[in-house]
Amino acid sequence: xxxxxxxxxxxxxxxxxxxxxxxxxxxxxxxxxxxxxxxxxxxxxxxxxxxxxxxxxxxxxxxxxxxxxxxxxxxxxxxxxxxxxxxxxxxxxxxxxxxxxxxxxxxxxxxxxxxxxxxxxxxxxxxxxxxxxxxxxxxxxxxxxxxxxxxxxxxxxxxxxxxxxxxxxxxxxxxxxxxxxxxxxxxxxxxxxxxxxxxxxxxxxxxxxxxxxxxxxxxxxxxxxxxxxxxxxxxxxxxxxxxxxxxxxxxxxxxxxxxxxxxxxxxxxxxxxxxxxxxxxxxxxxxxxxxxxxxxxxxxxxxxxxxxxxxxxxxxxxxxxxxxxxxxxxxxxxxxxxxxxxxxxxxxxxxxxxxxxxxxxxxxxxxxxxxxxxxxxxxxxxxxxxxxxxxxxxxxxxxxxxxxxxxxxxxxxxxxxxxxxxxxxxxxxxxxxxxxxxxxxxxxxxxxxxxxxxxxxxxxxxxxxxxxxxxxxxx
Length: 475
Hints:
Elements: E1 4-6, E2 9-11, E3 16-20, E4 23-31, H1 36-54, H2 58-74, H3 76-87, H4 91-114, E5 118-121, E6 127-135, E7 138-142, H5 150-161, E8 165-169, H6 175-188, E9 195-197, H7 202-211, E10 216-220, H8 223-236, E11 239-243, E12 248-252, H9 258-270, E13 280-286, H10 287-303, H11 322-337, E14 341-344, E15 361-364, H12 371-374, E16 381-387, H13 390-398, E17 402-403, E18 405-409, H14 413-422, E19 427-430, E20 446-447, E21 450-451, H15 461-464, E22 465-473
């Protein structure tokens, strides 16, 4: 049973079922549903714990995050299985995500000790200047369902490392993963009130947290919800950070290594069931290689094993829930109505268990103005867009309201270098899938994808700390 964690106490009664998308008869557990009153209590607890925690020795914070990192790694198989059972990604992906969360906590355990300042002379005689960093305060953290341990890790770990207290609201589809993570941090020694967990729906708990008296809020989710976070934050002049998705292009030029390009597209578009904000949802392919690329991609997609997330043979698990599956099918129908062709898949498939299984979809005859090419689908649907040459492909790639990540497959150093410079995205990939990033490097995009300082790596301190400049006169 997944319960809330407020002021160091596990509270609440699980009444809402948490169902396995690979097998609808399998109830992973029941979770409690919070309300605005509980959010207020959690914020109060975080506010009460802040004065002591913000001045806690860095070595104490290092020890807590290190202990959490160790337990995550030691239990990666067990927790990865729980994650895959709850969210639907393959077992290998689930175990890998837990291992990644361990690496993130280990990295930020080190950052707690590495936080430093600057000292220098003033332009005035006998005056010294120092620049230090301090925690922002009480931070609200709102995370999505697609990476139920890794994304909370890359928000919670830096928040705690730099001396902030946290109120954590995970997506309602993945309460068990959130509960397990908070339980580990509690066992690692996080003091009461430093980390608080409130479970529930976005329109109740999420809305209450957005409206609460926080010093900062870090949000990953839909564009619409992100806009609500921005508006509420602007009213109180608090710091906010948004990650809101993408419509990421993978450009494939005539000179690309065909097998490598197809592998990049297959990984980026369909692994994790395409439910990644970094997914390659627009495959922009130049004329000379287009038909061969589509043919090979369809062959490889047909060979993908779609099935139960816990089956070791499965390469693509189910869609997370019925609503997301319906959304995927609606986009495919919309594309067909606009004149697109379904080169492969896109249909619902049956397996031994009742689940939300969908064959990956490859759509061709797509124009970049179509709805299916403009809006984030968040499912295993890839749009192939034909381009005349490199310049045409680059223009199509940049013609999007999003700007999270982009990729190019080419053997031309000239085109690879030019793409890295001119691509209007926060992250670029050359001969790699658009999905897949390192935990020690900054993560984030441009335009409608992101707002605020970057997440992950040493750049995370820009959001979770404030700079203070001090002047001291000698004598």
